[in-house]
Design brief:
268 residues, alpha+beta, seven-stranded antiparallel sheet, 14 strands
């Protein structure tokens, strides 16, 4: 997952609005979103190479979104797949604090990553490169392959478009439009992450079309005040054309168990 936009408790009718793109090599096999069995019990796509995922949502509206931190000098080919962190984070209904503590202990084993997640009540971010995690206040956030809200052109543009899209909810088309934005950034705006200038250009748009690599799927998650959850995902081929889509609508369930350290209220 290489771009995630989140509006957390800023819309009067939709306390959770999530729009995200997964960018990956087209040769890496994956299947579209479906319900997983226990222990995570989440709705998510699946990476068939390593068995993990990039974004998952549970029936009690907890979620986790993973992005890689782009720095070729830090890459360890022997490290475990970061995609296993999403199902592991959602396998138990832990509080945000417990999940942050767990990530702090686990992070060194993996290549750089960011995990944006909610325990259903609170929102948090863990960034493995600085090794820090924290709770986030209500607001609009953007995450790509650096730290949260790093003003890369794609993040800045998508956050601006998200503000406009929120005004048009429950219409979904503006959210998909911002995820399908294929305009590259100007050279003077490009980040310098250790890749060639050609690849920095190719990766600078929200929707990526590059040789052998690109945006594989786009996902929208909406949770409204009544507890209705909408999950919609579109899959794309190497030319950026639609392969298909899946849509799941369900009502948020109460958690199976609540941590004894904190009473867990749900999203308003």
């Amino acid at each position: 997952m290489c771009l995630a936009l989140l509006a957390w408790r800023v819309h009067p009718d939709y306390p959770l609005v999530l729009a995200a793109n997964r960018d990956e090599f087209h040769a890496r096999a994956a299947v579209p979103a479906a319900w997983w069995g226990e222990p995570s019990g989440m709705l998510a796509g699946r990476d068939l190479d390593a068995g993990g995922t990039w974004l998952g949502v549970t029936r009690d509206a907890r979620f986790a979104v993973l992005t890689n931190f782009r720095d070729p000098t830090r890459h360890d080919a022997a490290a475990p797949s970061r995609g296993v962190l999403v199902p592991r984070a959602l396998a138990q209904p832990d509080t945000l604090d417990a999940t942050l503590d767990w990530l702090g202990r686990e992070a060194r084993a993996y290549n750089g990553f960011n995990l944006l997640f909610s325990d259903g009540e609170r929102l948090g971010i863990f960034e493995s490169v600085p090794g820090t995690g924290r709770e986030l206040a209500p607001g609009v956030y953007g995450l790509s392959n650096h730290l949260l809200d790093t003003p890369w052109p794609k993040v800045t543009a998508a956050k601006s478009q998200l503000a406009t899209a929120l005004a048009r909810l429950p219409e979904e088309a503006p959210l998909l439009d911002l995820l399908r934005d294929g305009r590259p950034a100007a050279d003077h705006q490009l980040p310098r992450t250790g890749l060639s200038l050609e690849w920095e250009r190719l990766l600078s748009s929200a929707f990526i079309r590059a040789p052998g690599y690109g945006t594989r799927c786009s996902t929208i998650v909406l949770v409204d005040r009544s507890g209705s959850v909408l999950f919609e995902e579109w899959s794309w081929d190497a030319a950026g054309e639609a392969l298909g889509s899946v849509r799941h609508a369900f009502s948020r369930e109460a958690p199976a168990s609540a941590p004894s350290s904190r009473a867990r209220s749900r999203l308003p």
